[in-house]
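Hey, sorry to bother you again with one of my protein questions. A protein chain has come my way and I'm curious about its shape. It would help a lot if you went through both lines with me. I owe you a coffee for this, so here goes:
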Amino acid sequence: MLRALARHVRSLKVVSDAAPAAFNMRHMSSGHDEEEDAKPRTGPVPTVFDRLVSFTVIDLTGKRHIVRGLQGKNLSEVLQEHGFPRTYFFPNMGFYTQHIPDCHVFIPKDLWAHIPNIAPDSACADAIKRMFRDIVQDYQKDSSYFGTYVPVSAHMEGTTIGIGPIKPWILHPGWLFDGVHDTKETQFNVKAIEIWG
């Protein structure tokens, strides 16, 4: 019994000796730059808090909310995580993005320079046109845009963004029959199910 245990321990030793060699082989084959590793690293290690951006959002009732979001996420995600009512959101109307909740927002003029341009003949541009036509309708202003197309960046620090009203007459039936826009929080007098027909 002791001999079997000794054989097992010796085999573990062999595996542990071979492991660093296997690691070095993977490390070498990944195209990693050893000179970069040799340079001393100075300065603080970046944290998640370094990527947080704080800005003010005015909801549909006029109440101001201080919202914090991670850089790199889109504005719609950050507003959902903050806990705004589900009635502020609607499905994006892109062919491949109908599962993504979007929202109508008012963007300050100084932030427009930091929002990515979208090619006029792209699928995203078609979705934006469709959402302005069907969801935003006459609530559209010069500063109107959609949250999924606004990346949260350091340029948003301290800015004020407004949530815009919507008229979801043409929504996906899954959203209608789930009752999302039939709550007391909604701004419509007629139930969305009745509007749908």
